[in-house]
Specification:
This protein folds into three domains: 41 residues, no CATH class; 142 residues, D-amino Acid Aminotransferase, Chain A, domain 1, CATH 3.30.470; 85 residues, no CATH class. The strands form two sheets. The chain has a five-stranded antiparallel beta sheet, with helices on one face. A four-stranded antiparallel beta sheet has the order 1-4-2-3, covered by helices on one side. By secondary structure, it is an alpha+beta fold.
């Protein structure tokens, strides 16, 4: 298949998937799971982690106001503040309904622009003077027209009121993007941390337990000879995770460490839409055993 035909096939698949999601998120989910894994999705008796995430997505997280609020990268700030954790929020520079409201000249030299209704809709600007303003605004306009929930039938994003937010640029003492510490929490109990490092160069993943030891959760972890330093604020991250994840069957709490302080990133309820391919078979089973589904 040549590149042109591949592009056409991809567009047809995306159109069909989005149409199916609008009609039936359940049917769309089953088809996407089959295409991704080659297996049938068991929603009656889900066992591994991805399958249980699918179940939560279609049942517990669907049309749930609190889930919608916490999945919203802007509205979640209110949830964090109401739980007495406002001091870990990154500084908010601006909130906009459209790109026309962004006062470009008033933005600092470094900043982050992101859409609140999905994942991967982030623009990290480390030098406004060298940035392509028109390209940035064009990209934001495209994202604001997208119904992100259609991509993986993540209906927890469906009812978010779309906004653009601008936050303070975060960097390590060395001037790089900080490590991202993603803590997997089950009914208020942190179990595993996924560290995303070398985010400037070539994103790397490492699963560790709470004693900061390597695990077999991800694929090929023990083949890596890299030892990631444990952040000074890790115990504090765990305490915040316990407090903020209470009442949720599963949520991933994301944090950064800046100047020996904890900075909140986001709350993620359906990692990769339940289609994450970076878990080993052991990892899928282990995480699945931690996740106890509520009665429907």
């Amino acid at each position: 298949m040549n590149k042109e035909n591949a592009k056409i096939s991809k567009k047809i698949y995306a159109f069909t998937r989005n149409l199916l999601t609008r009609f039936s998120p359940k049917v769309a989910t089953k088809i996407m799971y089959r295409i991704s894994t080659g297996k049938k999705l068991d929603l009656k008796n889900p066992k591994d982690f991805n399958q249980k995430i699918m179940w939560l997505k279609l049942n517990t997280y669907y049309k749930n106001p609190l889930i919608t609020q916490c999945a919203d990268k802007y509205a979640v700030r209110k949830y964090i503040e109401e739980n007495g954790c406002g001091k870990i929020l990154n500084r908010l520079i601006g909130v906009y309904d459209t790109t026309n409201q962004i006062e470009w000249e008033s933005l600092p030299k470094k900043f982050v622009l992101k859409c609140n209704h999905g994942c991967g809709m982030n623009i990290i600007c480390d030098n406004k003077d060298k940035a392509n303003k028109n390209e940035i605004l064009r990209k934001l306009d495209i994202w604001m027209k997208e119904d992100y929930y259609l991509d993986h039938a993540e209906v927890n994003y469906k009812y978010i009121k779309k906004k653009i937010i601008c936050e303070e640029y975060l960097q390590s003492k060395e001037g790089f993007l900080p490590n991202d510490y993603k803590i997997y929490c089950f009914n208020g109990e942190p179990k595993i941390v996924l560290v995303c490092y070398e985010r400037d160069i070539n994103l790397q993943l490492q699963f560790l337990d709470l004693d900061w030891k390597k695990t077999r959760i991800g694929k090929g972890e023990f083949d890596k000879n890299i030892n990631i330093p444990k952040p000074k604020t890790f115990d504090t991250m765990i305490e915040y995770s316990k407090k903020l994840s209470k009442g949720f069957p599963f949520v991933r709490m994301d944090f950064y460490e800046i100047d020996d302080k904890v900075i909140f990133g986001e709350m993620t309820f359906t990692p990769a839409g339940g289609l994450a391919n970076y878990y080993s078979q052991y990892g899928l089973k282990f995480l699945g055993n931690q996740l106890h589904l509520p009665i429907k």
